[in-house]
Design brief:
The chain has 28 helices and 9 strands. The protein has 597 residues and is of the alpha+beta class. It has 3 domains: 340 residues, no CATH class; 91 residues, Alpha-Beta Plaits, CATH 3.30.70; 54 residues, no CATH class. The radius of gyration is 28 Å and the shape is elongated.
């Protein structure tokens, strides 16, 4: 065995141990691997760092921004509400729905794109249904990976293998040639995840922080029903604000006499009604656009001070030694003295239905304040309040929603031009054009652009791509392929086919899926020809194998959910290995039936 091959295999083993023990962050392990490959002379410095310049890195970074645009405009939240309405809080139903939607989407959009697009949706569903994110995110990634195997454009791997087949004198795949076995594999994979896999999934994430535990991010506020609101004339039961806006209606104040109505499902909403509601900040901030409602400030005088550029929303906590303690907004003459408006007060979950101006403030009260930052900062410096969060940046830009959709649609349209028109637009260029559209329309602000990108994941992907180059450079992949022929040929054609399938699956862990498939393909085709077997059968099996990368979180779709789901490396090994064996059995049984040996 050549020395370079020994070094690469040894480093691969070391990497798997470090990934499994998680003593070091996964991106740090990737950096150590690259350094070791360069220092050992296996790769040059340029080769070792080439992964960082790959267009896949740009593409994935751009996808983070595109999906960020969908989140910022509330589209993701809207989709989440629709899915939640279908499945409710039932974990089984949500898992099944998420996997099915991901699989269908990935058959057209590619698995990485699908996972990135639905990641924030699933996180929102998790929070709404009170289900740990770890229970839903791995099914999302696995559903997308399975669905990508169903069509020619489901993954770039399918397209790469189809193109390579033509170089070897074979006809490339048709659009739906892979659909038959791919659909069955999706079904079997879903059955596994909904039964065995769901039980193996860890319950991590979604724990309530102290602020959530004490409900200090929930407020009671008064909402005015504006002219033109679609809620006018509807009963509370028909409006269903709890599901539509996540707001709980506590009371209605109506008419000049301020008649208080204890709300029932049959009470109808009228123009200029004051709805006393309880809800979270994000939901209260978007009521005007979504339902034609507006938050009523506690004071009505001098409204001009709250209008114009620079007005923001802040959450501030009253400090122990603050002059505010024991005072009310009225006694402080808060609006006049500080040029700020308190829109809501929360006290560890206690709600206030009376006028905010009469509430005597206590240490730990959280005020929702509207005004200019220069008015809030002196209060923070003087120790009167502690700034918890600048909420203005978190408000959904619903008016920009059509631009977010247009940007994502532009990316998808350009990524399909080769299939539709025979003109190829590189994915990196397509995604960057989408990002530029978001920036040009201010759907995503330049100041927040880089905060939307998870650079840890990009570093890991780049490092593992460089490791894949090392496997090709040293012929480690060919060495492993020769072992398959040597030890499996004696057991017959199916065994050889299975051997190449397993080799491809193994290589997709440290290498990119496309690289693994293209490395194994020529060896497999030559072996099939030498044994008098159908080369297309082997090409199809390798294509499926390259798509089924479940065993480690190094597949881009899995990397995307790795951190948000708080998974460990061994979670993927445990759950993904069984899933790999299941889809392996299905593929090895069905491929020779649909594509005769």
């Amino acid at each position: 065995m050549p020395a370079d091959v020994i070094i690469v295999l040894s480093l691969l083993g070391l990497a798997l141990v470090l990934f499994g023990t998680e003593k070091l962050p996964v991106d740090v392990v990737g950096i150590i691997l690259v350094i070791a490959l360069v220092m050992s002379g296996v790769l040059t410095v340029n080769q070792g760092l080439s992964g960082f310049g790959d267009n896949v890195i740009v593409t994935i970074a751009g996808l983070f921004v595109l999906t960020g645009g969908l989140v910022k405009t509330g589209l993701v939240d809207l989709i989440g509400r629709r899915l939640y309405r279908v499945a409710g809080s039932n974990e089984f139903a949500l898992t099944a729905l998420i996997m099915a939607v991901a699989a269908i989407s990935a058959s057209v959009l590619k698995n990485t794109t699908t996972t990135a697009m639905f990641l924030p949706v699933v996180l929102g569903l998790s929070e709404r249904a009170k289900i740990p994110p770890s229970k839903l995110l791995m099914p999302l990634a696995f559903g997308a990976i399975l669905g990508g195997s169903c069509t020619l454009i489901g993954t770039s791997t399918n397209l790469a293998v189809s193109g390579a087949m033509q170089r070897y004198g074979m006809e490339g795949f048709s659009m739906f040639e892979l659909t038959s076995v791919g659909f069955i594999t999706v079904a079997v994979g879903m059955i596994y995840m909904l039964t065995v896999g769901r039980k193996l999934l860890p319950a991590r994430g979604g724990e309530e922080s102290l602020t959530e535990q004490y409900h200090i991010r929930e407020y009671v506020s008064e909402l005015i029903v504006l002219p033109g609101s679609h809620l006018i004339g509807k009963t509370l039961g028909e409006a269903d604000l709890a599901h539509e806006l996540d707001l709980n209606v506590l009371g209605i104040i109506r008419g000049k006499d301020s008649e208080r109505i204890v709300p029932g499902p049959r009470d109808r909403i009228q123009l200029n009604d004051l709805l006393i509601v309880e809800g979270k900040i994000g939901d209260l901030l978007n009521v005007k656009t979504l339902a034609g409602l507006e938050i009523k400030a506690d004071f009505t005088a001098q409204d001009d001070m709250l209008e114009g550029a620079g007005v923001e929303l802040f959450e501030v906590l009253v400090m122990r030694d603050s002059n505010f303690v024991g005072q009310t907004l009225r006694t402080l003459d808060f609006r006049r003295n500080y040029n700020l408006t308190v829109m809501a007060i929360n006290r560890h979950g206690q709600t206030f239905l009376d006028k905010l101006s009469d509430v005597q403030m206590e240490y730990g009260d959280v005020l929702l304040v509207q005004g200019r930052r220069r008015r809030v900062e002196p209060l923070v410096i003087d120790g009167e309040v502690l700034l918890l969060e600048d909420l203005s940046k978190g408000a959904m830009r619903i008016e920009k929603r059509h631009w977010a959709i247009a940007a994502f649609g532009l990316f998808l349209a350009l990524s399909l031009t080769k299939v539709a028109f025979g003109i190829e637009v590189p994915l990196a260029v397509a995604v960057l054009l989408g990002v530029l559209l978001l920036l040009a329309t201010k759907t995503v602000r330049y100041a927040e652009l880089y905060t939307l990108i998870d650079f840890r994941l990009l570093v890991l992907i780049a490092c593992m791509m460089s490791f894949g180059i090392a496997m090709e450079q040293t012929k480690t992949d060919v060495f492993l392929a020769d072992l398959i022929v040597r030890y499996f040929e004696q057991f017959g054609p199916i065994a050889v086919l299975g051997g190449f399938f397993l080799l491809t699956v193994a290589l997709t862990q440290p290498m990119s899926n496309q690289a693994a498939a293209l490395v194994v393909l020529p060896v497999a085709l030559k072996t099939a020809a030498a044994l008098g077997l159908n080369p297309r059968t082997f090409a199809v099996a390798i294509t499926y194998a390259a798509s089924f990368s479940f065993i480690t979180p190094l597949e881009p779709a899995c990397i995307l959910v790795y951190t948000p789901g708080r998974y460990t490396f061994m979670d993927f090994v445990k759950i993904g290995t069984f899933l790999t064996l299941v889809v392996f059995a299905v593929a090895i049984y069905l491929v020779p039936i649909f594509w005769k040996m």
